[in-house]
């Protein structure tokens, strides 16, 4: 198997285990629930085919759902983010150019483009997730507050993850 497959498999294991063992126990103020495992989906190569991307995303979300005894909230949100990622990765990361990025990160694209990509797709993820989870119990204001706060915290954690675990010379454009 190629080096890229091993890197993505390692990233998957690291992020999912960190999510299950550490971040699932963090729920700050009832509004912040970091879900860093979504970064795995957002860092998959931009040239991955649609069906494998959707299956990987659904499987990742389903695994998190099984670990949290949830009813498919993560699987649905991950699959929708994967569908949106196909379009946004082309518009934000590559800016419509025929460039293939093996590992989208703050080092392989301009940091502000990557952070805007993260913010947008994480906001979509959290808005969908919290709309399903909180809507029946709370109002729209709580959904927006939880979405905004969790998006910002997860984006900060994602950037920190990349600074700590990725090498600056990893320019995979």
How many separate domains make up the residues? 1
CATH topology: Arp2/3 complex 21 kDa subunit ARPC3
* CATH C-level: Mainly Alpha
Q: Tell me, what's the shape? A: globular
Please give the radius of gyration in angstroms: 15 Å
Order of helices and strands: HHHHHH
Through-space gap between termini? 21 Å
Number of helices: 6
Tell me the quaternary state. single chain
Q: What's the architecture in CATH terms?
A: Orthogonal Bundle
Main sheet summary: none
Helix content: 55-70%
Average pLDDT level: 88
- Secondary-structure-based class equals mainly alpha
**Overall strand count:** 0
- Low-confidence segments, ≥5 residues, pLDDT <50? none
How much of the sequence lies in strands comes to under 5%
Topology:
Elements: H1 3-21, H2 38-42, H3 50-68, H4 73-93, H5 111-134, H6 140-165
Helix pairs in contact: 3-4, 4-5, 5-6
Overall description:
With 173 residues, the protein is mainly alpha-helical. It has a single domain, classed as Arp2/3 complex 21 kDa subunit ARPC3. It has 6 helices and no strands. The protein has helices at residues 3-21, 38-42, 50-68, 73-93, 111-134, 140-165. Helix 3 packs antiparallel against helix 4 (73-93), helix 4 (73-93) runs antiparallel to helix 5 (111-134) and helix 5 runs antiparallel to helix 6 (140-165). The longest helix is centred in the last third of the chain and has 26 residues, at 140-165. The radius of gyration is 15 Å and the shape is globular.
């Amino acid at each position: 198997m190629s080096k890229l497959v091993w890197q993505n498999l390692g990233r998957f294991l690291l992020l999912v285990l960190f999510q299950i063992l550490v971040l699932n126990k963090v729920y700050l103020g009832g509004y912040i629930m970091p879900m860093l495992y979504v970064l795995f989906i957002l860092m998959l190569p931009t040239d991955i085919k649609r069906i494998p991307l959707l299956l990987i995303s659904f499987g990742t979300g389903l695994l998190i759902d099984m670990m949290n005894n949830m009813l498919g909230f993560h699987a649905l949100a991950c699959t929708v983010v994967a569908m949106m990622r196909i379009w946004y990765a082309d518009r934000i990361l590559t800016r419509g150019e025929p460039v293939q990025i093996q590992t989208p990160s703050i080092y392989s694209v301009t940091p502000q483009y990557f952070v805007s990509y993260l913010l947008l797709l994480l906001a979509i993820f959290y808005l969908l997730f919290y709309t399903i989870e909180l809507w029946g119990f709370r109002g729209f204001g709580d959904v927006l507050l939880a979405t905004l706060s969790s998006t910002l915290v997860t984006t900060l954690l994602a950037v920190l993850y990349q600074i700590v675990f990725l090498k600056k010379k990893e320019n995979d454009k």
